Amino acid sequence: MKNFSLLGILLLFLSSMTAQEKQWTLEECVNYALENNISVKQAELDVDLSEIEKRDAIGNFIPGVNAQATNSWNTGLTQDVTTGILVNQTVRNFSAGVTAGLTIFDGLRNFKQLQRARISRLASEYSLEKMKDDIALFVADAYLQVLFNKQNLEVLRAQNLVTQEQLERTNELVEAGVLPQGDLLEIKATFADEQQRMIVAENQIEISLISLAQTLAIQDYENFDIVERDYDVFGGEILQYSAREIIERAKEEREEIRIAETNMELAQKDVELARGAYLPSFGAFFNYNTRESGRGRIVGAEIDPDQPFRQIGVVQETEQLVVAPNTIPTVGEPLPFFDQLSMNDGFSYGFQLSIPILNGFATRNQVRRSEVGVLRAEYQLEQAELDLEANVYQAFTDAKGAFKAYEAAIVALEAQEKAFEYATERYDVGLTNAFDFSQAKLRFENAQREMLRTKYDYIFKLKVVELYFGIPVAELKF
C-alpha cells in the first residue's frame, strides 16, 4: 500500500512538472489562436453558411418532387364511394400521389442567385482571412506585452540585487563612521520601493498571461507560460519603401478592399435578382395519383321487386312520365389492395405560365431599394480605400517613429549606464551621497525599461506594416 501511495505521488509530481514545463513560443500561440480562437471559429461558420447558401442556389435547378399518402376511416353519414349514396357506415379509404415541378424560366433569377452565392462565399473567405490577420496581430501584441513585463521584472530584480549589495556596503560604512545614517536610510527606502515595484511587475505578468490565454481560448491559466527569449528586429528594410508604394500594394493584397469589392458585387446581383421579377416565369408539372377503398364493389344489379320502376323525367308536351327500371346494385367483396391502385390511378401534367402585371409596386420598390444598396456599397468601397490609405500612413509613420524612439532609447541607455557606473564609483569612495546614487540608479533602470518598451513597440508596428504590404501571417519573422 505504501508503494502505491509513493507511485501516485510520483505520477502527480511528474504530471505537474510536465504541465509547468510547457512554454509557448510566439509562433505556437499564433497557430493555436488561428485554430481555436472563438472569433476565428465564428468566421469559419460564416464560410460554412455561405457554402450552404450556394447549395440552396444549386438546388433551385433541380425539380421538386413530393409524395403524399393518406389512409383514413370515416364513420357516420358519409357518401358510399361504391354507390354514391349517403349512408351511415364506417369505411376505410386510401389515397396516394406523387407531384413533380420544374421551373424552366424565372427571369434568370436562379442563375443570378447561384452567382450571388458564389460571390457571398468569396466574401466570407476574405472576412475569415482578415479575422486571422487581426487575431495574429492581437496575439503578437499580447505576447510581446507579456515578454516586456517579464524582462521588466528581470531589470527590477537585477537592480534590486545591486541595491542589496549597496545596502550591505553602506551599512558597514555607516557602522564604521564613514557615511552618515541618512545614506543608509536612503538606500533602505530605495530597496523597499524596488521590492514594491517588483510585486507590481509580477502582477502585471500574471494579468498579461491571463489575457493572452483567453485570446487563445486556454482555460488552464495557472500552467500557461511563454518562452522567455529576446526577439530581434527583423524586416526593417520594408521601411525603405515609400508610404505610397505600401498603400498601392495594400490595395491589391488586403482583404478590406476585397471585402468591400465583393459586397458591391453582391449589391449589383441583388439588383439583377430584383429586376428578374419583371419577367414572366414558366414551369412544368407532373402528377400521379391513385386510390383504394375498403368498401365493397358493385358486381351486378337486380330489379327492385317493391318498386320496379322509377321516374326519371316528364314529357313537356304531353306531361307523360318517363320511367326507367329501378335496379338495386349487388355489392361484392372489394378488389385486392394493389389491384385497386392500378385500376384507379391517373396522371396529370402540363405547363404553367405566370405573367406579372401589377403587385402594388412591390417589384419596382425592391429594384429601387437594391439600387440604393449598390450606391451604399460603392460609398463603402470608397470609404474602405480611404480608411486603408489612412491606416497605412498611420502604421508607416508609427513604425518609423518607433524606430527612431528605439534608437534614441539605445543611446540613452548607453549614456545612463555610464552615468550609473560613474555614480557607483563616486559613491563607493564617498564622493557622492546615497540620494544622488539612487537617482542615477533609477534613471538607469528607467532607461532599460524604455529601451525594452520601444523595442517591442517597434517590432509590433513593423509587423503591422508588413501585413499591409501583403506578407502572410505565416511568413512574418520575429
UniProtKB/TrEMBL annotation:
Keywords linked to the UniProt accession: Cell outer membrane, Coiled coil, Membrane, Signal, Transmembrane, Transmembrane beta strand, Transport
Listed name of the protein: TolC family protein
Pfam family, one: OEP
GO cellular component: a single term: efflux pump complex
Domain of life per record: Bacteria
Protein family (similarity comment): Belongs to the outer membrane factor (OMF) (TC 1.B.17) family.
InterPro entries in the record: OMP_efflux (IPR003423), TolC-like (IPR051906)
Coiled-coil stretches noted in the UniProt entry, renumbered to this chain: 243-270
Chief localisation class: membrane
Organism: Christiangramia oceanisediminis
Subcellular location: Cell outer membrane
Keyword Transmembrane: yes
Signal peptide feature range: 1-21
PANTHER family: OUTER MEMBRANE PROTEIN TOLC
Gene Ontology molecular function: any one: efflux transmembrane transporter activity
